[in-house]
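Encode chain A's predicted structure.
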Amino acid sequence: MMEITIKNILSYLEGNTKYLLDIFNLYPKHQQEQVTWRLLICKEDCVKNGECEYCGCPPHKKAFVDESCNHGDRFPDMMD
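Encoded structure for chain A:
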C-alpha cells in the first residue's frame, strides 16, 4: 500500500482533475498524445492489471500526472 503523503495526495488530485478535463475535451491535444503514449507503453502490465506496477495507482488516471512515477524508467515527465 502506498504511503499517504501530501505529494501523493496532490498527485491523486492532479490525475483525477486532468482526467475529467480530458473527458470534457478541455485537455490540451499535445498532452493527450503523451497520455495515450504512456498507456500504450504500459498496456501489457499496468493497464491489463488495472494498477501501476510502480505506484499502484489506476493507470488511466495516473497517466495524466506531470511527474513520472517510474523515474524515467519507462517514460519521462510530461513534456511542454
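The chain is about 50% helix and 0% strand.
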